[in-house]
Amino acid sequence: MASGSGGRDPAWRYCAPLEGHRNGTICNFCGLNIKSGGITRLKFHLSHTDPNSNTKKCPNVPPEVKKEMRQLLEQKGKAKAKKAADMEEIRAELQGTMRRKQYSLIDDDEEEEGDEDVHMYPADMHPDERDEYREAVRASKASEWNRDQLAGFMRGKRKIGESSQPGDPARRIQRSQSVRHTDPSPPIAPSLYKSSAAKQKSIKNMFKGGSIKETMGRLISKFFIYESVPPQKADSHHFKNMIFGAQQAGMGIEPPSPYEIKSKYLEMEYKDMEDYVNLQREKWETYGCTIMCDGWTGPTKLSIINFMVYSKGSTIFLKSVDASKKIKDNKYIYGLLKDVIKEVGEANVVQIVTDNGSAFVKAGKLLMKKYNLYWTPCAAHCIDLMFEDIGKRDSVAQLIGNGRKITNFIYNHGWLLAKMRQVCGGDIVRPGATRFATNYIALDSLLKKMADLKKVFISNEWSSHKLSRTVVGHEVERLMFDHQYWEKVENLVSIYEALYTVLRIVDSEVVPTMPFVYELIRLMKTNLDRLKAKEWVKLIIVDRWDRTLKHPLHAAAYYLNPKFQYRPGVGCNPELLQAVHEVFSKLDPNSDGLCNFGNELILFRDAKKGFGDRAAIASRSKMVPGD
Questions:
Q1: CB atoms closer than 10 angstroms to residue 416
Q2: Of 139, 144, 566, 550, whose CA–CA distance to 377 is shortest?
Q3: Per residue in 453-495, pLDDT tens?
Q4: Average confidence score pLDDT of the chain
Q5: What's the pLDDT tens digit per position in 346-364?
Q6: Separation CA 17–CA 25 (nearest Å)
Q7: pTM of the full predicted structure?
């Protein structure tokens, strides 16, 4: 299997990760082990175009793959060139901004001396007003300095405490000398805002020598470092907009105060978000919407129920309810959902999605009787329950338990853990106690590292270590070389993989998965047949499908998806047709609407009028339903 990075680059289709080497790959065509360089070096290997001639050329690569790799490398080169050009453009704009003459710098003589402040005045300020302006700034800074000194003195006094003798002169001297050092702090970052020549560099000195980009990079990085802001936040488009906005605004614009941020600007953001939500509400009336309900209980037993609304590719958070002091039975859940339906609009709601808890199931069925809508369980939760049902089987539980025994033994002993990391080149994913899909991830990780783990347990260091003579050590060593155990783990992982693939798709937020649930379950069953899964596994899948996921809404979405509609047998399938009519008659019981829908459905099934156009045919398998 490809690593987690396999989904990001098309070249991962032609290689596999090299265990023990973080950036290593194995060529699928010739089997060459490339220990470093990552996916880029593999592209050089397949394309025969390494600029440094440090990579062996693949003798078995097909011509079409070689061409594809060369195209990928060419695209990457163009992207690098474009990025470099964009950075040069930004640097030029920044240099232009620094040269703008919106403000004047004066007191050059004082700046040379190094003990006076450098003041910036608006260009339109009269020269006679500058002395008064400078004195006011100095007085303000002096007052601020006095407040800081007084605060520092009081902190130092509190830290010294009551133990010293007040009459001892040496104690008084030590106390006065310790005031400066009672509150250590990180180095002061050079500031461009209210700069002081005594303690901080001036604007001119900050940008004297070195590149402007590096100087700006250091100033920005100091904010991230000393204010404990995660570096990943630099990728935020809000941060980038802030930098570009500051460049466009030019020098002399003061940043907002904390009070302005939490009052004025917070209120403006709230107003923008309110406008956005109102815009989404208009979609609800046109396209209908789905209400999603999700419960959460924290370690302190705080129970929160969240309500979200999805429509036309957008999800908004509606509200949260604290249910910590409530009995969460079907009556309580029914009342909450009923209130949400009224808030969203009864005519706008197409379906309600909840988990498979008994209270939610009963409340959902009651709502279907009262309103023209559908309740469906969360597909991801249903598949997770399939994992749970399979994991309850004694034979499977024993395999998982032995896998947990191996990982716990390794992670509970520092020497063995360090040895494992040294040989395997990474950690083992440990089985979780609650989420059942993690059992697959853990067993799969253990299976991938099996060969390297065996090297640990046959090494001289292990045989001479005291852990090898313990009871648990003997048992773990026996499991490591139990071929029947690993064969069973491999079979179980292949079965779990069929479920896990579907789980990742339905739990993603890339595209709506409603039109694909029916097809995904069909593919899952096909894969299980191909893997020759035991009958009890298939019965678990069928039972969960029939009891929870098999729903008219899923069948109707499958039938109306043009990607599947024109497959042999789908258009005339009586079960699917019945589901489509049932759904439409419930959501729109108007007789005129039913008549028009029937006529449109026939045109869609037979690919007539607009459904038979060349553009419509070409987009059947490309467009996502709902676009």
A1: 21
A2: 550
A3: 999 999 999 999 999 999 999 999 999 999 999 999 999 999 8
A4: 79
A5: 889 999 998 888 889 899 9
A6: 5
A7: 0.58
| Residue at 423: amino acid letter | V
Of 164, 162, 221, 159, the C-alpha closest to 184 is 159
DSSP state string for 344-377: H-GGGEEEEEE-S-HHHHHHHHHHHHHSS-EEEE
Across 7-18, average pLDDT: 84
Q: For residue 157, what pLDDT is reported?
A: 46
Q: What are phi and psi of 451, to 5 degrees?
A: -60, -45
Encode pLDDT of 73-126 as tens digits: 998 888 888 888 877 776 666 555 544 444 444 344 444 344 444 445 555 555
For residue 321, what is the enclosing H or E element? strand 314-322
Structure tokens, 216: 């700006």
Residue 423's nearest CA partner among 479, 483, 480, 489 is 480
Q: Under DSSP, is residue 292 helix (H, G, I), strand (E, B) or coil?
A: strand
Could you give the CA distance from residue 403 to residue 557 in angstroms, rounded to a whole number?
Answer: 40
What pLDDT does residue 201 have?
47
Whole-number CA gyration radius for the chain = 34
Residue 161 carries which side chain, given as an amino acid letter? G
Question: What percent of the chain has a predicted confidence (pLDDT) above 70?
Answer: 76
Helices (H), 481-560: 483-506, 517-530, 535-544, 552-559
Task: Say if CB 117 and CB 191 are below 8 A apart.
Answer: no
User: CA nearest 48: which of 31, 33, 63?
Assistant: 63
Neighbour count for residue 379 (Cβ, 10 Å) = 24
Tokens of 375: 């309740």
Give yes or no for residue 428 having a pLDDT over 90: no
Cα–Cα dist 562/389, whole Å: 34
Residues 6 or more apart from 485 whose CB is under 8 A from it?
399, 402, 479
Q: Which helix (H) or strand (E) holds 121?
A: strand 120-122
pLDDT digits (tens, 9 = 90+) for 569-582: 887 888 888 888 88
CA distances from 564 to 94, 378, 521, 545, 571 (A): 54, 23, 14, 20, 9
Nearest CA to 577 out of 596, 593, 598, 591 is that of: 598
| Number of other CB atoms surrounding residue 188 within 10 Å | 10
480 Cβ contact partners less than 8 Å away, ≥ 6 residues apart: 406, 450, 453, 454, 457
472 token code pair: 């648990």
Q: Which of 426, 492, 429, 510 is nearest to 7 (CA)?
A: 510
Give the separation between CA 230 and CA 469, rounded to whole angstroms. 46
DSSP 13: G
374-377 and 303-311 beta bridge pairing: unpaired
